[in-house]
């Protein structure tokens, strides 16, 4: 008997259908993955399995069997029995999913005390032991000391483990994981994926929701690709990734930046023809850069040179000092020691007043462009940026980034993530910078939007000849865009060199560890290339 | 065949209270602008023969100890009360905004100094502090305005300083720095406009307090001098006749109370609207 068997599932909010008739079966012990971009309806589908589609939602289906029972007839009481006992839910952001005022022990113990037969089975005295067992099962080191810790004392990876522990506490036959590794570093992501694979090996069925095909590839038996509330393609993992039949799946696969995609445009797979003018002129250089907050050193002895029209990639996990590097390069932080030179002029250790005339030469785009926009400003005003640019120039800048004048009067709040990043790029271009610092510019974007933005940056670089410092935690992205790469760890540069050398022949053990942690190779990248 | 989970959506309810308050404030504004529209009688016209007459069809609010029409005096008094408190609030708002902005942008030691000064100022009750100021600069309508403004200034300054801190550290101010804009441009184009947000709400509520303070100071004889028809001054004169003519004190008192309550109701409403809090029961 299937654990889950659903036919023609439809979910609508205020008359708008976001899930438009999908069928889903999950067998015991099977791992099914739903892949799609934001707004595809993948999360709503997963949540409706727990009766949690959301306020104001209307869920319909011609068949909706959970463990053989007809869930269409369920009331709130029955749904509560489904949650935790039949299916455990693991959410993306463990920091907001865990109660900040409760210890790890209290959090997991609550899942053990769910109403129903399992509560009767667990006598109060054994709760502590059960919690310890669960923490050990999910690979939390030193579970004894972790019992009394609060969520803020745990790292992202540990929080995710605690969340998984509470999801499996009542030993449900199904775990639903909604983007379980999205907020995590690549090495931690690898650990969590291994953990999920272990649960699967132990006989638990998994429903994995992700926007990342690579993540899914390593664990899932079957993949459903969703777009606009419909399943456009489904099949075994090897088949969907190896021989995708639907154009959307192919586009998704081609849009994943990686070593193989270098020199290709991500959005349509064509080869980049324009040759980038490379020169030996140094536009930005740093040597011996260190920075400390009080006694905590976040950057130590960093040095690099950036040539005109070149892209320098910076990779590292959270806390490795990538953003500190960006802020030092931008002259927003004063280095504790070391120097930065921009276009031959001293950039660090000079007064803000003498820096000001050079500031337009080095611009930045960040992960969350909305933060960098004055909330009262329209797109036109943001791009013009107090310089009274004529309308033609604003139009020209918007056209550079693939927008038109109809966006001029809109506010960034009403734009999509990709459009916001385009506005940020247009604003930076307005200064005709020699250097563009990109601090995780595509991390918050869907893979197809990411592809468009990366293509856009590549085109603009070829056309305008600016140099870029490209900071990202995503090794595939960095390999795709960079000429040379810095690998950072704990505030230091552990390795640097030509991108291909670093990625194909890493010298430092940490680089090797990072590369090994990248989830399985996604085949079929060149599906529509050449 | 569908599982529907739909909590009742929160819908704003146009309460009778808020409508009444707004209507009253409208009436008050009218009284302050063109008092003759509401009453044809001269508020200073004394008629000893009809002194201390109780409310009647001829004199709706009765007459005072000099035979002046109380309704006319209350209506004309609106101009003083509203005028003084509007001027005081405006002054306090402007000065508070500038000082708060300065503190928020100043180097740390100066900010510390200013903040402690605001703290000290706000430990004293507003009315007491205003009295202190009057004691130094002397009584009179203009001085009452200044005294109330100084007493209320820390409220605005503190909010503006806190807000300035937030905006100063925001991504868009940092972005403006990377564009090479001068500090003056950043302050006037980004910091100042984004700091203004909470002030209208604060000023509406502050207006109510200013009215009480104005009436209080006038009651003590520090404000507009007799025979001017000011609510506080009227109350002061009327307290000698409280036993024989309750109406002489009752109506100006009612005017003060109703004004303050109306302003508070409207202010709270604005606060909830702009701070996005759902309606609480029993308030507004």
Automatic annotation (TrEMBL), chain A:
The keyword Nucleotide-binding applies. The keyword ATP-binding applies. PROSITE patterns: ABC_TRANSPORTER_1, ABC_TRANSPORTER_2. Pfam families: ABC_tran, oligo_HPY. InterPro entries: AAA+_ATPase, ABC_transp_ATP-bind, ABC_transporter-like_ATP-bd, ABC_transporter-like_CS, Oligopep_ABC_C, P-loop_NTPase. Residues 4-253, 284-515 form the ABC transporter domain. One of its GO terms (molecular function) is ATP binding. It comes from the Bacteria. Keywords: ATP-binding, Nucleotide-binding, Transport. PANTHER family: D,D-DIPEPTIDE TRANSPORT ATP-BINDING PROTEIN DDPF-RELATED, TRANSPORT ATP-BINDING PROTEIN. Belongs to the ABC transporter superfamily. This is Peptide/nickel transport system ATP-binding protein.
UniProtKB/TrEMBL annotation, chain B:
Signal peptide: none annotated. It holds the Pfam family BPD_transp_1. InterPro entries: BP-dependent_transpt_permease, MetI-like, MetI-like_sf. The chain crosses the membrane at residues 14-34, 82-107, 127-151, 199-224, 244-267. Residues 78-267 form the ABC transmembrane type-1 domain. One of its GO terms (biological process) is transmembrane transport. Gene3D superfamilies: MetI-like. Keywords: Cell membrane, Membrane, Transmembrane, Transmembrane helix, Transport. It is found in: Cell membrane. GO terms for cellular component: plasma membrane. The keyword Transmembrane helix applies. It is a multi-pass membrane protein. Belongs to the binding-protein-dependent transport system permease family. This is Peptide/nickel transport system permease protein. It comes from Nonomuraea soli. The lineage of its organism: Bacteria, Bacillati, Actinomycetota, Actinomycetes, Streptosporangiales.
